[in-house]
Each structure stands twice: as C-alpha cells, then as structure tokens.
Amino acid sequence: MLSISQLAAYAGVTVRAVRHYHKIGLLPEPVRDRSGYRSYDSAAVVRLIRIHTLAGAGVPLARVHELLAAAPAEFEDGVQEIDKELRAEIRRLQDSRRRLARLAAGDHLALPQSVVGYLDRLRDQGVSERYLEMERGAWIMIAAKVPEVIDAVIAAKHEQLDDPDTQKLYSLVSEAVENQGDEALLVEIADILERLYIRAADAGQLGDEPFDDQLVELLDAIMLEAAPEAARLLAILEERGWKGWTRIEQVPDRITSK
Question: 209, 216 in Cβ contact below 8 A?
Fold first, then answer.
C-alpha cells in the first residue's frame, strides 16, 4: 500500500494534483486508515497514470472520466473527437496570434491593407507619427462606415501624392501639428490648399467624396479635436472663400485666385 506522496511519485504528478483529481471525482479517494492516512493500491497507481497520460496529451479533464470508462471502440472515437476539437482550437489560437501581430503593428488595427500601404507611404515621406495617428483614426472610421469604397478612395489618394503640391502639403501639415501656433506656416498651408481646391473645382471634382453628412462631420471632428491649430487654418481658408475640410465648399463671392 502506498501513501499519497508515494502514489504521486509513481505517476509523476504532484500531491496537489492527486488531491485535485479526488476533488473532481477522477480518482476515487480511499478510506483512511486508523491513523487518518490514505492508503493506495496498485489499481490507484494505474488509474492515476492513465489520468496523467490523457491530461498530458491534451484531453480536457472534463473528458478524462468518459474515456477511462469507455470501451476500446468508444475510446478511439472519443480520442478522435477530442483531436478534432483540439485542431479547431489550434486554428483559433493561430488566428488570435495573427490578430495580435497585426495589433502590434499598430496601423493594422481595423484597417484594410490598402490603407496600411498608404500610411506607410506617408511615413516614408517623413510625415510625423502624431499626424499619422490623426489620419489613422479617420481611416478606421471610413473603413467601418463605407468599406466598399475605401480602396477606390485610397487609389485616388495615391494619385494625389504624386503631385508636388500635395507632397509639400503633407510635409507642412506634419510640421504644423508638431509646432502649434505658427501662423506663417498655417498661411503657407492655406496657399497650397487653395491651389488644390481651385484645381479640383476646375476639374469638377470638388465635393465628390462618397461620404454622408454624418461621416463628414465626424471626420472633421477628428481633425479639429486632434489638432487645435486646424480651426485657425479653416478660418484662414474661409476668409479666402473655402469652407470645410472633408467636404470642401465654395463660399459665394469670396473666391480669389493664387
């Protein structure tokens, strides 16, 4: 007869594990002797080893009792079923790891690959992380609200980035976000934006964004909340006859050419 510590040693488990198996009904608890100690026989050793083997193979403890009581054919079916469940769990965990990796990458959170590529291009051009964070928030909202148009919108943004004025604009806007309160810088940004607005108006492209009024309002709010200097920039532009940020509108009788 064996003590609980000797039993545990034979099976390669801890005494604590043996007590847990008693508690959940996997291993019958023997009657204590006159001294109050448990004594285990060879059958307990065999059962404990089988429990430990099944648990070590990944069988949930809730299923171990079922397998221990199963006939050979039922045991095989049970193992195959558990294996199927484990493979499904592995796939789920692998998918979770991929998602965590994307989260660690930052830009991949709730963003399609086309937007990630666009943000990477801005980053390569030296745009500050603070400005990119502002853009990222806007793109997350766009991707959630109108996912069917985001790739086309990004393609248009890439075309715009080929324009020297747009490249200069991003450089200046990034600088303005990092150096708040620089009035001369805001005026220079307004000059470029005005040229771009005039070109868009001449080409009939002004106000052709595929966003509803609510989304436009939310996108404008992201910019205004993240960059306090944006309100002053919009005021400068409105003085020149241009209103809005996401959806640009002409203010009648106030348009000037640059």
Answer: yes
